[in-house]
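2024-03-11 09:14:02 DEBUG pipeline.ingest accepted 1 chain
2024-03-11 09:14:02 DEBUG pipeline.ingest length=254
2024-03-11 09:14:03 DEBUG pipeline.predict start
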Amino acid sequence: MNANMARPAWCEPAEWEARVQLAAVYRVFHMMGWTELIFNHITLRVPGPHKHFLINPFGLTYDEIKASNLVKIDLEGNILSPSEYPINPAGFVVHSAIHANVEDAHCVMHTHTTAGLAVACMEEGLAYTNFYSAQLHDMVAYHDFEGITVHDDEKSRLLRSMGNKRLLVLRNHGLLAHGATLAHAFALLWTLNRACEVQVVTHAMRGQTLPISPAITERATRDSLQFSPAHGAGQNVLDALIRRVERIDPSYKE
């Protein structure tokens, strides 16, 4: 089915395009196993003058998400699109804080992958001991755990912890990334999560880990093509994964 043919009358073309793209990425997360029952979130700003954004309907798994059932909300959490479902307050607090205060945070992603959460529970956090973490020199911030993120007063502290970093390790909780595009946020989060996966396995082995010097991680981060706009900032990678989703189930476009 052509995605434009499925667009309902209440939805503008630019918003519909954003909905289709975001729904595709939810299916990518499902395909990769980056899911936590009906929890966690990927949010995307709706094109236009207002800071409205799309979030998953609370109650659906990622493989049930379609362009039409994503929920549009404002920075106060008011639902602005037809929806049979509510939104998860825990997701709204974190994502709205970033969308409201970081101008180029067009996409925010948050996961509870086993590897990401395991590293978030370690006092040292991310270790610069593998190929992937070496590409994240001075790119990761940390925010201390304050319990379930449903209290508005945590927003200011979370933003202060994040500073100007794109990646945030929520201690004892999980991983978060924000990017100028869906692909940009995905490339950042994938690299951090992959670094965590390797770190978890490395720490399970006998022997001493082999640290990488800051001079090398700084150079590796500078040389990495993963986040460079000149090389698509991850768009080619995300496009390839969406093609795989398309072959499995194109219903995300409905």
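2024-03-11 09:14:41 DEBUG pipeline.report The first strand starts at residue 41 and ends at 45.
2024-03-11 09:14:41 DEBUG pipeline.predict end
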